[in-house]
Amino acid sequence: MVLRLVLGDQLSHNISSLSDVVPKRDAILMCEVWEEATYVKHHKKKIAFLFSAMRHFAEELTDKGFRVHYIKLDDPKNKGSFRGEIRRITHIHKPDQIIITMPSEYRVLKDIQDWESELGISVEIRSDNRFLCTPEEMADWANGRKQLRMEYFYREMRKKYNILMDGNRPVGGKWNLDTQNRKPPSKELRPPSPTTCVPDVTTKSVFDLVHRKFSTHFGDLEPFHYAVTRKQALQKLKDFLNLRLPHFGEYQDAMLQGEPWMYHSHISHYLNCGLLEPLEVIQAAECTFTEGHAPLNAVEGFIRQILGWREYVRGIYWLKMPEYSKENFFNAQRKLPWLYWSGDTKMNCLRQCVLDTKQNAYAHHIQRLMVLGNFALLAGIDPKEVNEWYLIVYADAYEWVELPNVSGMTLFADGGYLASKPYAAGGSYINRMSDYCKSCTYNVNKKTGPQACPFNYLYWNFFICNADKLRGNPRLGHSFRTLENMGVKKTETVKADAKRFLKKLDRDEQV
Ligand code: FAD
Ligand code: DLZ
Ligand code: SF4
Prior knowledge:
Layout: E1 2-5, E2 27-31, H1 34-38, H2 44-63, E3 68-71, H3 82-93, E4 97-101, H4 106-112, H5 115-119, E5 122-126, H6 135-142, H7 150-161, E6 165-166, E7 169-170, H8 201-213, H9 230-248, H10 268-273, H11 278-290, H12 296-320, H13 339-342, H14 348-360, H15 365-379, H16 383-393, H17 399-410, H18 427-433, H19 454-465, H20 467-470, H21 477-484, H22 488-506
Helix pairs in contact: 2-8, 7-12, 9-11, 9-12, 11-12, 12-17, 14-15, 15-19, 16-17, 19-22
This protein binds flavin-adenine dinucleotide, ligand DLZ and iron/sulfur cluster.
């Protein structure tokens, strides 16, 4: 008998571990384990989503005629970890071999790599066939390059999969159409409401489990509108392609109070757990362009996120682990302020983004990068604490994708391996791309003083404090020239304002 272990983010019927499964001979093991649910205290909605999706996937496998051992979290026999469960099940069923698809996280791979010697059974770890670039291909591409830039990686991927190509050239003549994208939101903008899926009996019984076992975890469990089956996830994708994709590019960076979903796809958690596959999503998006339903700037921008960024960050993760998780270029030491959990702050942009996150286990890219992340960067919060927060709060968060986005893209903790410069910004960026500042206690146009938007002085304070590390960066020449022309008096005021603000932040006083 061959025992095939399917992890919670491997819910794809064509996953490599199941490619040659023999229904009468083999068994499939899936388990809800305490260790995975608590190695960080995941958002309640994330746990409910994943457990419900796992249970539905197990039912689908059973309906297809496979023998499935599904271990629920509160099964009294449950040993609480992958290793404990595999040990227990192999003891009972005595398989000749264990087959598993490569786990998405370094932590789990290291654990699995010594099962074979511990159990005395062959353990085959197969490549994850859902990703479009293998870690080996990424290593080849990176080899000998001084700088790794997503844009060049993305072009190779376009060619490899023949996506939006016209022979050897990109359709429309340009690889990247971002100059046509990223408009500020207009007052009248009313994004369509997202499709909602009604929780069924399986999901409701998971709610009960989450209430009982994870009541101290962050986040709201309900309302719960997520898809939990592939069929539902495909419907969500279809609705995105029809209703939102045509405007995706234009409003990709826009933020509106009370509109957490905007024109984004909200499919990252389905992609990351396997209910949707990247290539099918990319090809479906390409079709909307070829059939004339969405413009090229929107479709190219969307495809770049999945074929480019998603694969690129995974490549970086496997190239740089385990050292990547310890990077701290700026030696940032501040503890994570309580406001990241409570949303209790007068800074309206931060408050809105924390509250959206708490309610939905979702915030879109610019909320994550330019509000929540930008603040963490400017305030000098310890990357370890910031990474843990991001890993907890989003339904799509797994270390392989979360860590490069946080340590690399957002905090520049890797010193510029992933991004060419820090994504630091003052209040004017947030004001241009959102309506948050209109309802804020602070004044975005004021640069210093108690009424001034804290992003404004924290921004300059960040460059003052990290000048020795950043001055040589050719992309920051303009910022340093402005800083030099600022004059001693203004520089001192900026420093004093930042000091006063950060002192309050450290005491968890309301800022
Ligand atoms: P859309 O805006 O509709 O984009 C389409 C798809 O492209 C996404 O579903 C996602 O699969 C992919 N994508 C877009 N940007 C990225 C990116 N930078 N890296 C990888 N894939 C991308 N994404 C995660 O999946 N998990 C995370 O834990 C995660 N943490 C992040 C933390 C920070 C600080 C930042 C700045 C970004 C993070 N992202 C993460 C990337 C991105 O913000 C989310 O993928 C996106 O917001 C998910 O929403 P969506 O499905 O509506 O995406
Ligand atoms: C995220 C998560 C959670 C909360 N719980 C489980 C679980 O109980 N069982 C499981 O198989 N997977 C879970 N996951 C997803 C895993 O963390 C993910 O599969 C690994 O991180 C992959 O390396
Ligand atoms: Fe955020 Fe500053 Fe605007 Fe307030 S004024 S919402 S703190 S950017």
